[in-house]
Design a protein that fits this description.
Layout lengths: L7 H8 L33 H6 L5 H7 L15 H15 L4
């Protein structure tokens, strides 16, 4: 937690490998898997929600069921509400089974 502009997002972008640090080092991440839910859903429109979840790993059906989407496994993202799409994005992050 911290005020706007202190570098919270930058730190996570560095941990995800989306950005290089200008200076300093991050240690303790060796061998760790990082998983994230982005601000945007970033779902693949041509895939079902089950396929979208399992792009990152396994267990999509279980996570989607636990998140209340078990009856929608073969639906496409454009047929879902915004909240349902967010839950698919969350299921995808959980399928990654990250350490962080």
């Amino acid at each position: 937690m911290g005020p706007s502009g202190v570098g919270k997002t930058t730190l996570f972008r560095i941990l995800l490998g989306l950005e290089q640090a200008d200076s300093g080092t991050v240690s303790g991440m060796e061998g760790k898997t990082v998983s994230a839910v982005f601000q945007e859903d970033r779902l693949f429109p041509g895939l079902t929600i089950l396929q979208n979840a399992e792009v990152a790993g396994t267990g999509g059906e279980t996570w989607l069921e636990r998140l209340g989407l078990g009856g929608e496994l073969h639906a496409r993202p454009d047929t879902l509400s915004g909240g349902m799409r967010r839950r698919v994005a969350l299921a995808r992050a959980l399928c990654r089974d990250g350490d962080v």
